[in-house]
UniProtKB/TrEMBL annotation:
Residues 1-20 are annotated as: Disordered. InterPro entries: Ribosomal_bS18, Ribosomal_bS18_CS, Ribosomal_bS18_sf. Belongs to the bacterial ribosomal protein bS18 family. This is Small ribosomal subunit protein bS18c. PANTHER family: 30S RIBOSOMAL PROTEIN S18, SMALL RIBOSOMAL SUBUNIT PROTEIN BS18M. Gene3D superfamilies: Ribosomal protein S18. Keywords: Ribonucleoprotein, Ribosomal protein, RNA-binding, rRNA-binding. NCBIfam families: S18. It comes from Platanthera guangdongensis. Signal peptide: none annotated. It comes from the Eukaryota. Residues 10-20 have a biased composition (Basic residues).
Length: 101
């Protein structure tokens, strides 16, 4: 085989089987907060399927469950812990505005 043909031939990669994070007995539901919190980043974003190592069907169900939990206020839309800490540490001084006539 020529070197030019070797460059374009597909390399045989070993197929790595995905290890399911969700067990068969786990219920994917908006009330299962311990399961849902594994699939949310520190900023409150839903992690991708590649990061989670989930199947397409599992990722869809997790996404729906997270969105339902957010709507029902059992899960925040975004994680504002850093903003809350900063807001508490900075004292606010409010002065009433007066209109000059």
């Amino acid at each position: 085989m020529d070197k030019s043909k070797q460059l374009f031939s597909k390399s045989k990669r070993s197929f790595r089987r995905r290890l399911p994070q969700i067990r068969s007995g786990d219920q994917i539901d908006y009330r299962n907060m311990s399961l849902i919190s594994q699939f949310i980043s520190e900023q409150g974003k839903i992690l991708s399927r590649r990061v989670n190592r989930l199947t397409l069907k599992q990722q869809r169900l997790i996404t729906i469950a997270i969105k339902q939990a957010r709507i029902l206020s059992s899960l925040p839309f975004c994680n504002n812990e850093k903003q809350l800490d900063r807001a508490e540490s900075i004292p606010r001084t409010t002065s009433p505005r007066t209109k000059n006539k």
